[in-house]
Amino acid sequence: MKATFKTNINCSGCVLSVTPALNELDNIDEWKVDTENPDKVLEVVLDDQNVESVQTAVRQAGFEIERIT
Amino acid sequence: MELVKQHYEVSGMTCASCAVSLESYLSKLNGVRSVNVNYPNHSVSLEYDQNTTSLSLLQSKANEIGYTIHSSQDAEDVSFEQRENLRLRTLRVKLIVATAFSVPVFVMAMFLMGRFPFENYIMLLLSIPVLIYSGSEFFVNAWKRGAKGTANMDTLVALSTGTAFIFSVFTTFFAQNLIDKGVQPHVYFESAVVIITLILTGRFIEERAKSKASGAIRQLMSLVPQTVLVLRNGDEVEIELNEIVTGDLIVVKPGAKIPVDGKVKRGESYVDESAISGEPIPVSKKKGDQVLAGTVNQKGVLRILAREVGDKTVLARIIDLVKQAQSSKPDIQRLVDRISAVFVPVVMALAVITFAVWFFVGPEPRVTNAMVSAITVLIIACPCALGLATPTALMVGLGQGARQGILVRNARGLEVGHTVDTLVLDKTGTITRGFPEVTDVVWSKDADVDFLSNAIAAAERQSEHPVAQAVVNHFSSASAEVEVTGFQSMTGLGLQCNINGKDIHIGNKHLMLKIDAHYPVYLETTANQLQSEAKTVVLVSHDYKVKGMIAVSDEIKPSSFAGIEQLNEMGIEIHILSGDNHTTTKSIASQVGVTHIKAEVLPMDKGNYIRELQSQERIVAMVGDGINDAEALSQADIGIAMGSGTDVAMESADVTLMHSDLGQVSRTLKLSKETMKTIRQNLFWAFIYNVIALPVAAGILYPVSGFLLNPMIAGGAMALSSISVVMNSLRLRSKTQVNENESNI
Fold first, then answer.
1. CA-to-CA distance for B426 and B630, rounded, in angstroms?
2. Is the pLDDT confidence value at B744 over 50?
3. Helices (H), B181-257
4. CATH classification of B3-74 is 3.30.70.100, yes or no?
5. Mutation site, B231, B233, B303, B309, interface A, largest A CB count within 10 A
6. Top-level CATH class of B225-258+260-308?
7. B437-553: CATH class
8. DSSP state, B263?
9. Starting at the edge strand that comes first in sequence, how are the strands of the sheet with A41-46 ordered?
10. Residue A25, min C-alpha distance to chain B (Å)
11. CATH class for domain A2-67?
12. pLDDT reading at B386 higher than 90
C-alpha cells in the first residue's frame, strides 16, 4: 500500500539522518521525501498495512510526522 | 597511562638486523610498551604511552640511528611504493657508478702496475666516486651503528674499505716518507672499490627480489568497489565507498562486488562468497539473508541494507589480521650478520694486538710498522665475497625453483623452508580441484539415457544454480536439440520443465517428495551411499518417476595423494584446515591419509590455528589458495600459495606453486635445504682466504721470512673467495637438477 505523511524533514541533511531508520523497516519497499513541498511530504510504499511503523521510525529519528493519506 | 597502538611505515632498513636494531633501540625508550618491526614490509607497529612519549619523539629517535618512521597513514600505499622504487633506482645507479670506476682500478692494480706514470693518483681519482657516492650507505650505517656500540655486515665493509682507502691516499701522497723509513708502500684502492661493488651487487639482487613484497593488502582492499550505488531519498545515486553510512540501502548489480556487510532487503541472487569462506559454490541469497563485503553478486539485482561499513566489515578485519600477521612475523637473522657481529670485534681486537706487538717488540721504525700492520689487518678482514654469499645462493635457488614452477617471491621462503616440521593444508582448491565436477551418473534400469542426457543438458543450461555449470560441462557432448518449455526454477529445491510433453524435474530429495515422484528403494540406497562420500546428489525425474541421479563433488587432485605421501615420508606432520563441514573434510582427509583435521573453521580463525601450532615451538608451513587463507599464509613461517588460487593468497605467500601440485611442496622444502647448505658453504669460502691472510697481515711470517701483506695477497684472497662463492652457488644448479628431471616425468 501507499501512504503519504506531512513531516518536518526539511533538507537533504535531514533526509540522510532519517535514511537508516526508514531503510531498517522490514515492511517498507520504497520511500521518498519531497523537500521542495512546503509540507515536506514523505511518500512510502509498504508491503503491508502497518503505517504506524513508519511514524514510529521517523519520530525515533527525531522528526515530526503526520499521516496525510 | 594512555596507550596508543599504531602501525607506521619505516624506510632506511637495508637488512634484517637493521630491523632488530631499530626494535631494540626503540623498545628501550621511556614510555614505549612494545615495538614490532616488520622488515619485509618495512613497517613498525608501536605501542606507547602518550603521556610519557610522543610519535615525533620516537621518530626523531629512530632518525638518530638512520631510520625514518613515516606517520602519514593515508598516502601510505602509493608513496611507500614510490619510495621503494626510488631506493631500487638509486641502488642501480650506485652499482653502475661503482662498476664503471672499479673495473679500470682493478685492471690497473692487478695487471698494469708500473706501466703508467702517476698510476696511484689515477686510481685515487677513480676510487673517489665509488667510496664517496656508491659506498656512502655503508659508512653512514656503520657510523650510526658504531655510535650505539653494535656491528653488522655494513660495519665490516666500512671498516675495511675505509681503512684501505685512507691508507692508500696517504701512501699515494707520502710514499717517499714510508720508503725513507724502510717500509714498502702499498696501495689498496682496488680492494676497497671491488668490495664495495660486489657487496652492492649482492644488495641489488636482494632488493630487487623483495621489492614486491607488500601487495597482499592492496589486493584485499581492491575487493571492495570504490564507488557504490545507493538509494538516497528514493533515487539511485553513485557515491564514494567511504560516504556510505550504516543504514544506507545499496543497490548491487549482477557481477558487482558487495561493498558492505549487511542483509538483503530486496531481490534474489547467488553470491560468490569464496573470498570469505573459501568455498567455491555460490550461495543463494534472498530477503533477510546476510551478505558480506568482498563477496561477488552473480546474476540477480540485490538491495542491501548496510549494517557494517568501512573498517567494521569482516573483510576489513581480515585485512587487519593479515597486516598484523605480516608485522608479527619474526625476522630470520641473517647468517652473514650473525657472523659479522662476532667477526668485527675480533678483527678490531686483532688489529690492536698487532699494533701492540709491533710497537713493543717489533723492529724500527716501530710506530710506522705497527700502524701499517694494524691497518692491513683491517683491510684484509672484509671478504670481497661477503655480500655475494647469500644473494648468489638465493638467486640460483630462486632460478632453480622457477624452472620447476616454484616461484619464490620472498627469499625468506628459501631460508626458512628447510626447518619446517608441520604443514597445514587448506582443503578446497589446495587438496581438491576447487570447483565442483560431476563424479558419478547413475541411471535406473528403465531409463532412456540418451533422451535424459539431452534433456538434462538443455534444462540445466537455463539454470542459474551454481552446480548447473558442472552438470552442463559433463553433458556437453549431449548436443541433440530438445525444446524446453515451461522452465521454472524452484529455490532450494531444483527446477522443473517440460520436454516432449512430459514433465522433467531436476533437484534434491525434497523436490521429489514435493512432486510425489516414484523413487525406487535401490536408487535411494545409491543416493545415500554417494552422500556419505560427501557428494551432492542431484535427482532426475521423468514423468514423476526418478530415473537417475548425478553426483557432484569437488574432487581430490590426483597429484595430492603422492604429494602428501612424500611429505609424510619426510617426517612432516600434516594438518588439514577447512571452512567446509566436518563430514566432507573428514572424508577428504581419510582418502589422502591425514589424521589431524579441523573443519568448519572461520576465515579469521585460520591464522589462530597456525599461531597455536607455532606456540608449540613448531615451524609451520601453510599451503592455501583463497583469500580466507591470506592471514594464515602470512602468519605461517613459510606461506605457500597455489598458482590457481587468488591473487591475495599469492601476494600473502612466500612461495607460489605454478602447477598447483602438492608434490611441489616437498620439492620446495628440499630446494630450501640445498640453498641453505650452499649459503653456509659460501660463507665458509668467503671468509676462509681472508682468515688465512689475517695472520700474514698481522706479520706472523715477518720474523721468519720478512713477509708482510701486499696487494697481491689481498687481490688473491679477493679473487679466490669470489670465485669459490660463485662456483659453489652454481653447483647448486646441478644438485637440484635431479629434482627437475623428476618433475618433468
1. 11
2. no
3. 189-210, 215-221
4. yes
5. B233
6. mainly beta
7. alpha beta
8. E
9. A28-34, A41-46, A2-7, A65-67
10. 9
11. alpha beta
12. no
